[in-house]
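hey m, so remember when u said the tokens were messed up on ur end? i reran from scratch. heres the input so u can diff it against urs
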Amino acid sequence: MAHVVVTQQPTMGRQMLLGPVHGHRDWDSGLLSCCSDCKSLISTWCCLTCAICNVSTRAGECMCMPWFVPGGLIALRARIRTLGGIQGSICGDCIAMSFCGLCAICQMQRELEAMGL
């Protein structure tokens, strides 16, 4: 019986990237398209806490994550972009959440609806 001695481990080119780094599409609706979906607009305006918890849960995170993780809303927006293959950057997410937070939350709700989540 012959023994084979392995002197070098086989290498496999691990390719983990599933899509383009910068995404392959735009958001389903614009940042300022709040009036196109009255349901998300009203829920965000009347109960912001409920809207944020809803977005977080639908994106697969704990509903409390945006409240207890520093920068949680920015991370949540980045997660939705990643899940949907949406073009953008963390810098853009930060700007949207800082200057148009309610509109950005409405946009995330519309996007999750369009993605079927």
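this time it looks ok to me. The chain has a mean pLDDT of 86. if urs says something different then somethings off w ur setup not the seq
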